[in-house]
Each structure stands twice: as C-alpha cells, then as structure tokens.
Amino acid sequence: MSIPRFHLAFPVSDLEKTLTFYRDLLGCKTGRMSDKWIDFDFWGHQVVAHLSPEDAGKSASNEVDGHAVPARHFGVILSWDEFEKLAGKLKEAGQVFVIEPYIRFEGKPGEQATMFFLDPSGNALEFKAFRDESQIFAV
C-alpha cells in the first residue's frame, strides 16, 4: 500500500544549526535551500525549516503517562530496529531527551517505543515504533 507523503513547514532560529542537526545527526538528505529555508527528506516526507526565530520552539505540554509531552511536535513511526538504532545513535551523540526512550502499553494493543527530544531551535520531535504495526490505531 502506498501512503501519501506529508509536507510540514516549521520555524527555526538558526539555519546552520538546523542543517547540522537534521542532516548530520538525524541523517536527513537536503533538497532546495535558501538563506531563509531548507528542505529536508524526513524519512520520505518533505519538511521545511523556515528561519523565523520569534516563532521557533514555542509549545505547551500535556501530561501523558507521567511525562510532560510537548503539545506541538512531529516525527515519524520507524520499524522497531530503526527506532533502537536511532535511540542508540542519539544517546551516543549526547542528545538530551525531553522523554527518554521507553515502552508504552507494554504487552497491550498498541505497544510502542517512543522518545521525545528537541532540535536546536526548541522544536519537539517524537519518534516511535510499534511492536505490531497493524496496531498503530489500536484502542
């Protein structure tokens, strides 16, 4: 099944730090860019970092499972192995986590690994993986 790709534009405060974070740490390829924005291939989706320091990183949080989850965040659902590799890479690089990698709904429908961290502009990202991808929308 082919899934449509999404496009997301988000504000950043520093394009050079953003480029280093998304390209070098997360491994996203770059597309078009200017002195005001950069296109990234975010696991097959197009995300665009727009220079807008006054808007970057602003988000309230909500309590979920005893964690303060940033209300505004984005990310992708990876395979379990990809998630573990990325979590290891981030830990090795010294990335600070908003929420350390952990398992939610363990042994229940929708069991998933999740982690939250911030980009250099304070934008929150969530990466997750489901033990059984057919249960992504399980209740």
Quick recap:
With 139 residues, this protein is α+β, with helices and mostly antiparallel strands. Helix content is 17%, strand content 43%.
Q: How does this model look, in words?
A:
It is globular, with a radius of gyration of 15 Å. The model has no long low-confidence stretch (mean pLDDT 95). The longest helix has 13 residues, at 80-92. It has helices spanning 15-25, 80-92, and strands at 7-12, 29-33, 37-42, 45-51, 61-64, 67-70, 73-78, 97-104, 112-118, 124-130. The strands form three sheets. Strands 1-4-3-2 form a four-stranded mixed sheet, covered by helices on one side. The chain has a four-stranded mixed sheet with strand order 7-10-9-8. Strands 5-6 form a two-stranded antiparallel sheet. The chain contains two helices and ten strands. It has one domain: Roll (2,3-Dihydroxybiphenyl 1,2-Dioxygenase, domain 1), CATH 3.10.180.10. With 139 residues, the chain is of the alpha+beta class.
* Structural domain count: 1
State the total count of DSSP E strands. Answer: 10
- Continuous helix count: 2
SSE pattern, N- to C-terminal: EHEEEEEEHEEE
Please report the distance between the alpha carbons of the first and last residues.
23 Å
**Low-confidence regions:** none
Largest β sheet strand count, sense and barrel closure: 4 strands, mixed
Portion of residues within helices: 10-25%
Assign an overall shape.
Answer: globular
Averaged pLDDT: 95
Strand content: 35-45%
The CATH fourth-level homologous superfamily: 2,3-Dihydroxybiphenyl 1,2-Dioxygenase, domain 1
Q: For the largest sheet, list the strands in their spatial order.
A: 1-4-3-2
Q: Which class in CATH terms?
A: Alpha Beta
**What integer value in Å does the Rg equal?**
15 Å
What is the CATH topology descriptor?
Answer: 2,3-Dihydroxybiphenyl 1,2-Dioxygenase, domain 1
The CATH level-2 architecture is identified as: Roll
Q: Structural class, from helix and strand content?
A: alpha+beta
